[in-house]
């Protein structure tokens, strides 16, 4: 089946073709026509998780495919937004806004600022971001409570440090659920101090545990097979 062509009849631009494909699906697919932004959230979460899996343990082809699936979610939301009767915007508006923001936040690339270390880049990034977010009144503004718990803990620890709040270091094993929460926060603080990703560290350890379980099951299964043969 032939895909959509770029405007003007020239060579097809893959991103434009993807956007036009999304538009056609929205126009002609009865299921897609019923979907709104909120309906898409579970799919966005799922596709994001699958992309993380592809990055951390998948193949190059899986990574390419999962990036495409996540891009489809962006195109889907933009197409829904383009039909809003009160405040419409489309994928071009999204891309334009992104480009403008990235140019603002990289004055060492697109302007006269100088940054020769990652730390200096971060200073410029945060300064530009602060100018954009003048309406924010708390360091917690913009932090999503829907982040995974460990990732949220590390994010909040960074914001807490900005106002002088420090978390305790890991101590004795917890004896209650409340103490467990304190211990987990302290471990997240230790991870942040070392520059580690607590969420990824746990995922990687769980993958090892999963492999161990499967190995034991395979051995047990082989034993059962031998006993009954």
From TrEMBL:
Domain called NTP pyrophosphohydrolase MazG-like: residue spans: 37-110
Pfam families: MazG
Name of this protein: NTP pyrophosphohydrolase MazG-like domain-containing protein
CDD domains xref list: NTP-PPase_MazG_Nterm
Entries under InterPro entries matching the protein: MazG-like_dom, NTP-PPase_MazG-like_N, NTP_PyrPHydrolase_MazG
PANTHER family, alphabetized: NUCLEOSIDE TRIPHOSPHATE PYROPHOSPHOHYDROLASE (PTHR30522:SF0)
